[in-house]
Amino acid sequence: MANQNDSFIDEVTEELRRDRLYSIFRRYGWIVIAAIVILVGAISWREYGRAQERQAAEAWGDAMLAAEGDPQAMLAIDARGSAGREALAGLLAAGARIEAGEADAAAEDLARIAAAQPQTALGELAQLKLVMMQGDRMDAAERDAMLTRLSRAGAPFELLALEQKAVALIGAGRPDDAITLIRQIQAKDGLTEALRRRLSEMMIALGVDPEPAE
Questions:
Q1: pLDDT band (50, 70, 90) for residue 27
Q2: Contact, 157 vs 125, CB < 8 A?
Q3: Domain boundaries, position 30
Q4: What is the C-alpha separation between 37 and 43, in angstroms, rounded?
Q5: Cβ atoms of 212 and 181 closer than 8 Å
Q6: Same domain flag for 128 and 79
Q7: How far is Cα 86 from Cα 122, in angstroms, rounded to an integer?
Q8: Does the N-terminal or the C-terminal CB of the chain have fewer CB atoms within 10 Å?
Q9: How far apart are CA 88 and CA 65, in angstroms?
Q10: Higher confidence at residue 15 or residue 191?
Q11: Top-confidence residue, 214 or 186
Q12: CB neighbours (10 Å) of residue 147?
């Protein structure tokens, strides 16, 4: 008899629990459904946005290839709000101008990118190319400040900026300081073979053993 009573009580308890769940679902189930709809919609919108961005990037790339060699046409291509594409277009246009012998116009393109995006990798590349192109024709203080910023530890173009600092020291008649800096660069990790060769050539030009002492 006790077992029957326990079984009956369990059935009643289970039925009450089920009724309570149904009641809660009837009252709040729409919230769950709405949350699911919103989540699915957000995921779909994100995927749609990614597809649109991919299509925009591909269209921009095709347009840049079609405009190759024509700086004005490159700069006229709509970057569609992308700062990266805008900077890259400026860099490519500057390169085309340099090949065409339009150094002043190229410098203007590079300076514009450097001013608009000083903290981005492409902006820093524009600054470095500007320093390399203008060399000692650039204001000495501005050049030094720019190279100091570009050669900070961990910067994307740290080693190339340090190389340009060595070039500036040689141009300023400070060969000993240049040699010290070149030795420091040679001791760093991540040197490319081309950079290593250029550093050795500078050391030879300065009348010093190109290889760092063991």
A1: low
A2: yes
A3: 1-66
A4: 10
A5: no
A6: yes
A7: 10
A8: C
A9: 13
A10: 191
A11: 186
A12: 22
pTM: 0.70
Q: Which residues contact 158 (CB under 8 A, 6 or more apart)?
A: 150, 151, 152
DSSP-derived letter for residue 187 is T
Residue 119 phi/psi, 5-degree rounding, is -100, -5
Which residue among 109, 138, 167 closes a domain?
Answer: 138
Q: Clarify whether residues 43 and 101 are in a common domain.
A: no
pLDDT at 82: 85
Q: In angstroms, rounded to a whole number, what is the distance separating the alpha carbons of residues 60 and 62?
A: 5
Please provide the average confidence, as pLDDT, over all residues in the chain. Answer: 84
Cα angle 19, 21, 23; round to 5: 70
The span from the CA of 133 to the CA of 115, in Å, is 17
pLDDT of residue 63: 85
Among 90, 93, 146, CA closest to 113:
90
